[in-house]
Structures are given as structure tokens and as C-alpha cells.
Design a protein that fits this description.
Oligomer: single chain
Order of helices and strands: HEHEEEE
Low-confidence stretches: none
Largest sheet: 5 strands, mixed
Helix content: 10-25%
Structural class: alpha+beta
Radius of gyration: 14 Å
Mean pLDDT: 79
Distance between the termini: 20 Å
């Protein structure tokens, strides 16, 4: 999993979050710092190895992706979900998104 995290071009990954007009906490990190934070998974919990299946869809099709929860900053309890799919053409796992809203997972 760490190899997948390190080899992903994070600038091309979709970020899924809810739109809100209330006060927000902003998290900003360059791709290298983000990769390091994910690989360290500060408050690693055993259930983090469980992949959560989610149904994704667009106008004409639907598919299943799997999310793993990462705690990237323990002092503020900042959890994110990283979604992945298995690409049968390349026979590899591909990261497809970063999910910030736990209510939509």
C-alpha cells in the first residue's frame, strides 16, 4: 500500500467533500507531505485494514470502489478516506479519490 501511495500523482486525484457555508478547517500539504502523512497513518487502528465498498456513479454507469481510512494528523484527529479500484487492464490497484466527508461514505 505504501508503494501505491508513493507512486500516485496526487495532483490528478479527485477530492470529494461536502460544500458548506460554515467555518471550515483548511488542510493544505504538498504531495510529498501528504504521501508521508498517509504512510505514517498516525493513529493506525486495526479496522483501517478493512476496505469499505462504496457505489460510485455518473450519468450512464455505476461501479464499486473501495475506501481505506487514514488518520493523517493525530493531534487534530483528521481522518480521510482514500478510494481505490482494481484495473483489470493493467492488473493493478489505482487510487481514484480522496474522501473528506464521512457522511457520504
Amino acid at each position: 500500500l505504501n508503494k501505491l501511495l508513493m507512486n500516485t500523482d496526487w495532483t490528478k486525484i479527485n477530492i470529494f467533500s461536502k460544500i458548506t457555508k460554515s467555518t471550515k478547517n483548511i488542510f493544505a500539504a504538498d504531495p510529498t507531505e501528504f504521501q508521508r502523512a498517509c504512510c505514517s497513518d498516525n493513529n493506525y487502528r486495526m479496522y483501517n485494514n478493512n476496505l469499505i465498498p462504496i457505489l460510485m456513479f455518473d450519468e450512464n454507469r455505476y461501479w464499486v470502489e473501495f475506501i481505506r481510512i487514514f488518520n493523517i494528523y493525530s493531534d487534530i484527529r483528521f481522518d480521510i478516506g482514500i478510494s481505490m479500484i482494481y484495473d483489470s487492464n493493467s492488473r493493478s490497484i489505482i487510487i481514484t479519490g480522496v474522501h473528506l466527508d464521512k457522511q457520504k461514505i
